[in-house]
Amino acid sequence: xxxxxxxxxxxxxxxxxxxxxxxxxxxxxxxxxxxxxxxxxxxxxxxxxxxxxxxxxxxxxxxxxxxxxxxxxxxxxxxxxxxxxxxxxxxxxxxxxxxxxxxxxxxxxxxxxxxxxxxxxxxxxxxxxxxxxxxxxxxxxxxxxxxxxxxxxxxxxxxxxxxxxxxxxxxxxxxxxxxxxxxxxxxxxxxxxxxxxxxxxxxxxxxxxxxxxxxxxxxxxxxxxxxxxxxxxxxxxxxxxxxxxxxxxxxxxxxxxxxxxxxxxxxxxxxxxxxxxxxxxxxxxxxxxxxxxxxxxxxxxxxxxxxxxxxxxxxxxxxxxxxxxxxxxxxxxxxxxxxxxxxx
Length: 344
Known about the structure:
Helix content: 40-55%
Number of helices: 14
Radius of gyration: 21 Å
């Protein structure tokens, strides 16, 4: 009996470079990026900055690094970061806000990870020595833990107005920002006008092997570059990876709608399963579903693996699927056949 082909749905970080992307990588012109002499890295940073209307960019190894560098530049020791309780910067970055920047966190309970201007204004600290200074608001778009939910830009406009009025910076964890943009049809520059800094991840939906770009003013990025070096993030001939990023920005944005279509199909299939209590709305490429209380997600993921479906636990009774460019229509058809079997 032949072995089942694994259907990789744990994350959109599992993608492999396409042949065309590999060709771009192999032909890249490179130098030493610590000396700021890697021309391909410079092209990627300039390209990403121009897309969002910023002065400069900084290519880093991961979205966690770009987020944490941004926070470190924005805040002082003892300041406060306001974000949703489901935020990646809080849940999945190793306690970096505390350990890297010695900052406090004010957690809000938003709607699937999306907070409102009204919530923010209610928690801004008074000017009193007993309280930390509310220095930074961090939003995530799309929200990983919220099942790929994305913001209404009008709410972000309101949040920006509050940040300006209270002298707070506004940062965007845009790990999957392009997934949001292909749905809302808004432009990257509309977001660049609203945020003091944006982290865009290229190794998720856009499919490059490694890398994220932090965007901001020249002054901000100069400070960020120093922090990156201090944290050991300086790299040398990074242009081979930057070339993949340039290719992805040119070729892999519009196709994200295909991932969203397949995710919605998976969500519809899972909603028909008797052991599934609820499927969160599938807005982009993330499917999160809740199992009957008697079923542990760890057990269910093991059962899925037995039929060749790779999924991630996302809580005691929640499981996550993420579609991506290596999960094709043919894979979706095969998924449909396998998931209709009695998994338990």
